Amino acid sequence: MSITFKKVSHIYQKDTPFAYKALDKIDIHLQQGRMTAIIGATGSGKSTFIQHLNALLLPSEGSINICDREIRSDEKPKNLKELRKQVGLVFQFPEYQLFEETILKDVCFGPKNFKVTQEEAETTAKQMLQIVGLNESYYAISPLDISGGQKRRVAIAGILAMNPDILVLDEPTAGLDPQGAKDMMKLFKELNTVHKKTVLLVTHDMDHVLEYCDDVVVIKDGHIEKHCDVSSFFQDCEALREMGICPPAVIQLKEQLQQKGFAIEKQALSLQDIVKAIVKEVKQ
């Protein structure tokens, strides 16, 4: 499912003395089946942008085409329930999405809301909890009595249980230990490559962007500052720093080696590529 924004602006508290334009005439087309990182400084408009994807926020100006639906600023959208099934949004603070008595009931809520049987909902919920690394020992626990990282896993399982075509994740690895974050990113990549889901990922972790994402969108002051593939994005360290972005560790290593005289191509973006380039040069 491709996503297109046409001249989209969003103004908080419109027509009041406190009006604030969080998005300003955004034009962007995001391809179906890609894993796209949404990055930018705090307050740049990232969260406002992603909340338009399932109509939690509506455009003040312009239109959005998503899942074969058009959301316009001049008319009230219809069938939002179906849209929100197709576009699954996991908030930055997962406790906002958790409210049932037990973890199993919480993950069952979404499927049951779409008229599946209790048995089917429980089967799906158990599968999704297993996928995010929570076994049967968690089923009867309150979702409010677990750690922040575990709450995030439950929130993600709840969204996955509805089988959305588009998965939107706001800082999904925050609160997870390094291994947990790696496991979660591998899961998102598998959902993208194996299950063909379009994934949008708001993150500050440039190492995750480099390793797992296909495309990058940089939002600055409510505008699209840059939109390109990951390979192009990380080839110019100076441009990254001008945007206030710290390059990933492997890119910094490549830059340091180049400054020492090693001839490493711009296209070398992984540790393996850099090692090969060093070995080749040493042999010569």
Characterization of this structure:
With 284 residues, the protein is α/β, with parallel strands linked by helices. It has 2 domains: 3-247, Rossmann fold (3-Layer(aba) Sandwich); 248-284, no CATH class. 38% of the residues lie in helices and 22% in strands. The chain has 11 helices and 10 strands. The strands form 2 sheets. The chain has a 6-stranded mixed beta sheet. Strand 7, helix 6 and strand 8 form a beta-alpha-beta unit. The longest helix is centred in the middle third of the chain and has 16 residues, at 178-193. The chain is globular, with a radius of gyration of 21 Å. The relative contact order is 0.14.
In short:
With 284 residues, this protein is of the alpha/beta class. It has eleven helices and ten strands. Helix content is 38%, strand content 22%.
The CATH architecture of the largest domain is 3-Layer(aba) Sandwich
Instruction: Characterize the main sheet.
Output: 6 strands, mixed
Computed CA radius of gyration, to the nearest angstrom: 21 Å
Decide which structural class fits the backbone: alpha/beta
What is the molecular shape?
A: globular
CATH class of the largest domain: Alpha Beta
What fold name stands as the CATH topology of the largest domain? Rossmann fold
| DSSP strand count | 10
Write out the strand line-up for the largest beta sheet, numbering strands in chain order.
6-7-8-3-9-10
Please name the fourth-level CATH homologous superfamily of the largest domain: P-loop containing nucleotide triphosphate hydrolases
User: Please, how many domains?
Assistant: 2
Spans of at least 5 consecutive residues with low confidence: none
What is the helix content? 25-40%
Spatial separation of the terminal alpha carbons:
49 Å
